[in-house]
Amino acid sequence: MTDDITGQAPNVSDQESQTDQQGAAGAQGQEPERFDAEYVKKLRAEAAEYRKRLRELEQTVKQHEESKLSETEKLQKRLAEMEREQADVSGKQ
Q1: pLDDT tens-digit readout, 65-78
Q2: What span, in angstroms and rounded, lies between the C-alpha atoms of 38 and 46?
Q3: Among 15, 27, 35, 74, which is most buried by a count of CB atoms within 10 Å?
Q4: pLDDT given at position 42
Q5: What does the DSSP assignment read for 53-82?
Q6: What is the DSSP letter of 83?
Q7: What is the C-alpha separation between 83 and 89, in angstroms, rounded?
Q8: For the chain, what is the radius of gyration of the CA atoms?
Q9: 5-58 tens-digit pLDDT
């Protein structure tokens, strides 16, 4: 497994969910469940590996789909992507 986990921004919704769970456990008089740091590190590394693999597979699928297209279809698709990007940029300004 790689150390692809450095530099990741924390997921705010996950933190809020954890805080809600901890608050509910505290309200019921229960201790929130805690995990060993080494176990958490292992899970994060595993998740990072899955994210990396997903990006690679998405790229492979995209290349495969593009290889099926004719040259005209490729150019039309690229034009549509560029027009969408331009609309996004001009919409933000």
Answers
A1: 888 878 888 889 89
A2: 12
A3: 74
A4: 97
A5: HHHHHHHHHHHHHHHHS-HHHHHHHHHHHH
A6: H
A7: 10
A8: 22
A9: 455 555 555 555 555 555 555 556 788 889 999 999 999 999 999 999 999 999
Residue given tokens 């034009």 in the structure block: 79
Tokens standing for residue 83: 């027009």
Tell me the two tokens of residue 15.
């933190």
CA proximity to 4, closest of 70, 73, 56: 56
Pair of tokens at residue 21 = 């769970």
- Hey, is 91 helix, strand or coil? helix
Residue 5 is given by DSSP the state T
Residue given tokens 């990006």 in the structure block = 55
Cα 80 to Cα 4, 16, 66, 74, distances in angstroms: 33, 38, 14, 10
